[in-house]
Amino acid sequence: YPSDFDWNYLASLNNLKDIVKYCTSKLGRPKKGSSRIVYLIDDKTVLKVAYNQAGLSQNYNERDGSKQQWYGQLLANVFRYDEDRLVWVEMERVKPITTENQMRKFLGGYTLTDIKEYIDNYMTCKNCSDEEKQMYKFFTEDEFILELIDFVMTYQMSLDDALHYRHWGVVVRDGKECAVLMDYGLNAQDYNYHYD
Fold first, then answer.
1. What are the residues facing 38 on neighbouring strands?
2. Mean pLDDT by 10 residues, the chain (196 residues)
């Protein structure tokens, strides 16, 4: 952060517009999503700032410590967050995945769309080809995919969100490239409330 970035001043601001204006003046031009603005702090850190109710809900969901505790290997790390208002979340910066094919190397050659279809089919294979049977068998044995399915089911994630490549990125952990969800604040309930 720049030396003149003042966390206490940020905490004193009550209006989301003023918070965004202050952060932009100190941190530079952000990237904007549907509910949050993301400031690139350095090679390892981003600051996500909510600018509407959906963004506050997503910050609330991402800061949930149980997700990090149980599924941290799948998720971008949360370093700290606004405990009082949940206006901002400081997180691990990832290198965004830009195509569905980039995910294949982390999913045994399969895609997030394949996993979504697997879940949509209640994880059963009726009238499947041999290739589909082999894919479904792989999904029941691969530790990363099992953890991912457990995560999206446990937290009732919006499948269109959590299982879309644009919400994933790559980090290096213990010297190895890993795929992690960088945007995992939107569950199905909040999607229906804020976007449907």
1. 31, 48
2. 95 92 96 93 96 91 92 95 94 96 96 94 84 94 96 89 94 96 77 67
